[in-house]
Write a structure and sequence with these properties.
The protein is α+β, with helices and mostly antiparallel strands and about 110 residues long. Helix content is about 25%, strand content about 20%. The two termini are about 20 Å apart.
């Protein structure tokens, strides 16, 4: 993953093999703030764009019209999903979140301050 601050809007680029996913760069801070508000572990709920995201999950929040960007954080049509798979581990590496590391049904909670 890397930042593309020159993109419009600024993007977080996630390269997975030959597939490139792009998300609003502000997703890092927005997700951290959301997790701080939640105060408890939240399911990741990773799902492809065309599949429904589990209610109450990180993925569902990243698609909801009430989120800070007014809908999808994913920028590339057809590849807007999987937010719940790729963003929480990045937050963990940045020291902003803790994840469970089970084979399935992982959850995330915020650490630190906004």
């Amino acid at each position: 993953m890397y930042e593309d601050a020159e993109a419009d809007p600024p993007a977080l680029v996630c390269q997975v093999g030959s597939t490139t996913l792009k998300y609003h760069l502000r997703a890092i801070g927005d997700l951290h703030a959301r997790l701080l508000e939640q105060g408890d572990r939240v399911p990741l709920g990773a799902a492809d764009e065309k599949k429904a995201a589990p209610e109450g999950s990180v993925e569902a929040w990243a698609r909801d019209a009430s989120d800070p960007v007014g809908g999808w954080y994913g920028l590339r049509n057809g590849y807007r999903g999987r937010f719940g798979m790729y963003l929480p581990p990045l937050l963990e590496v940045l020291g902003l979140a803790e994840l469970t590391h089970e084979q399935r049904n992982n959850r995330v909670c915020a650490v630190g301050r906004p």
